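Let us work through a complete example step by step.
Step 1: write down the sequence.
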Amino acid sequence: MSDKSASEISPIMRRLSSYIASALRQPLPSAVVEKTKHHMLDTIAAIVSGSRLEPGKKAINYVRTLAGNREASVIGSRILTTAVNAALANGMLAHADETDDSHAPSLTHPGCGIVPAALAMAERQRRSGTALLCAVALDTTWAAG
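Step 2: predict the structure and record it as tokens.
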């Protein structure tokens, strides 16, 4: 057992939090904006493609059975559901046909988790496209880091 209290923030989390908080107040470099737009477009294309495949149809049907507030869209359907459910479904759709992005050093597919979650929260919170781009860029940087 550790003597640290549950409310104590680790040095790593403190540094990461400071970085994100300061980054939100500064414009993204144009090269980062361009790369993030491509990353988002690639993931959205995978979501649309996945919505027509059997695994995607199952994800859409599953989310359709869940109750909740109408906060965010399931792409490729007419479903408005909670942000959590929309992020889940869109993440499943993004990975359905295995055309989603990959990051070899981390052995991950960051787009299918990051983009659907950011889209759902941006829609729920009515954030701007710039805020959405910033969230995706920062999360992708952190996930790939």
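Step 3: interpret the result. The chain has one domain: 33-144.
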